[in-house]
Amino acid sequence: MGDPLFAHGVDLASVLIVVIRVLVAFAALMVAVMLMIWFERKLISDMQNRIGPNRAGPWGILQSLADGIKLFFKEDLLPERADRRVFRIAPYLSLVPALLAFTIVPVGGVVTIAGHTVELQVADPPMGILLLLAMSSISVYGVMLAGWSSGSKYPLLGSVRASAQMISYEAALGLSVATVVLITGSLSTRAIVTGQATAFWDWNAIRLGAVPFILFLIAATAELNRPPFDLVEAEQELVGGFHTEYSSIRFAIFFLAEFMNTITMSAVIVTLFLGGPDGPGFSFARWLWPILWFLGKTFLFLFGYVWLRAALPRLRYDQLMNLGWKVLIPLSLAWLLFIAGLRVNRAWGFGILVVAILLIPVLARAVKVGRERNLVEGPPGEPVHRSVGGRR
Q1: In the Cβ-directed half-sphere of 366, how many Cα atoms lie within 13 Å?
Q2: Three-class SS string for the chain?
Q3: Which residues are registered as beta bridge partners of 116?
Q4: How far is 208 from 338, CA to CA, in rounded Å?
Q5: What is the pLDDT of residue 392?
Q6: Dihedral sign, CA of 146, 147, 148, 151?
Q7: Alpha carbon of 347 to those of 204, 252, 341: distances in Å?
Q8: Rg of the chain, C-alpha, whole Å
Q9: Per-residue pLDDT reduced to its tens digit, 273-298
Q10: Rounded distance, CA 303 to CA 289, Å?
């Protein structure tokens, strides 16, 4: 299934439509980022009764405006020991993947412009999901290079944490996406949305048993470095994280990249699990209702992310790793095998599920034995001192 815009070849009108789609998507995403910054600061200040972002100007708008002007006119610092070229390019390496990932998201249905059938998304490549996974993996390079090029140990520690966190949760995120691809039979985001458009109960969040949806939501939150997984910017340990040495507009780009990634990932969650722009419509302005449904669903997740930031404390780093490696990855792998078994035969699917449930006590016992042995013998390489009774 290709883009219907090019069904009859490529002409000047189709090229102009593509350019317009790119510009509109870029402008809409930038406006959404600015609104998200204001919305998050305003909502958190209301929840926590903070004076400032909720009272400076109408609805707190002047507070965000003042901070934006301050960042724009601050001095752009360059550390003496920094790798100048990498230090300057790192913020853009965090921003560009979020822009590219948003291009494959269907934000509406199909409209007709100048006799051309146009899908309301920038592009619908046949391997759209692979592009999404690639962009989510590449985005950590900007964080990693920012910490490394700063020439300081604390930003470097923050960037190393970002890499470890991304690797830990990328596997669970990819396995959750694999269940969607398996049930849909396509890597195209438009095909995934079309497969959920039959009825409400055909949304992937429901027909996959809600488990991949929950796992993807948790893994995506960790990938975005949003609370309670914002260990990359743990101020009590790392001063300010990977961007400690940044100021002015380069710091603002990292700030924009975080919010842009949040908006993009919320849109991806809606696309993969909640039917995208699917929803009931009316006879008038039929092209508008899918867009409104898409925006409404995306807004719910954005509100949820703000609520989590206002309500939850930050996890410890060992809790972060334990959740990723010992809970999310085994559970997402088991559910993927369960869905694959159901696709072959129901008996196969439930047989795999029973085996996975029976293995849970075995895995829990193995983890417990490993912890007890580590407490008795100590970490590898540490000399063990025992008393006569066999105790340390």
Answers
A1: 6
A2: CCCHHHCCCCCHHHHHHHHHHHHHHHHHHHHHHHHHHHHHHHHHHHHHCCCCCCCCCHHHHHHHHHHHHHHHHCCCCCCCCCCHHHHHHHHHHHHHHHHHHHCCCCCCCEEEECCEEEECCCCCCCCHHHHHHHHHHHHHHHHHHHHHHCCCHHHHHHHHHHHHHHHHHHHHHHHHHHHHHHHHCCCCHHHHHHHCCCCHHHCHHHHCCCHHHHHHHHHHHHHCCCCCCCHHHCHHHHCCHHHCCCCHHHHHHHHHHHHHHHHHHHHHHHHHHCCCCCCCCCCCCCCHHHHHHHHHHHHHHHHHHHHHHHHCCCCCHHHHHHHHHHHHHHHHHHHHHHHHHHHHCHHHHHHHHHHHHHHHHHHHHHHHHHHHHHHHHCCCCCCCCCCCCCCC
A3: 113
A4: 10
A5: 43
A6: positive
A7: 22, 54, 8
A8: 24
A9: 999 998 887 777 788 899 999 999 99
A10: 21
Taking alpha carbons only, the member of 177, 109, 107 closest to residue 137 is: 177
Residue 264 near residue 98, CB atoms below 8 Å = yes
120 has pLDDT over 50: yes
Beta-carbon contacts of 304 under 8 Å, excluding residues fewer than 6 positions away, are none
Amino acid letter for position 295: L
- Residue 52 Cα distances to 26, 42, 55, 83, angstroms: 30, 9, 5, 37
Quickly count: other Cβ atoms within 10 Å of residue 50's Cβ. 12
Q: What is the pTM of this model?
A: 0.87
Cis peptide bond prior to 361, omega within 30° of 0: no
* Structure tokens, 200: 């409400």
Distance CA 123, CA 3 (A): 8
pLDDT of 293: 93
- Residue 3 has which token pair? 């883009």
Which residues on adjacent β-strands are paired with residue 119? 110
Q: Say which amino acid occupies 208.
A: L
Whether the CB-CB separation of 109 and 290 falls below 8 Å is answered with yes
Tokens in use for 27?
């402008």
Other residues' Cβ atoms within 10 Å of the Cβ of residue 71: 16
Q: Percent of the chain beyond pLDDT 90?
A: 25
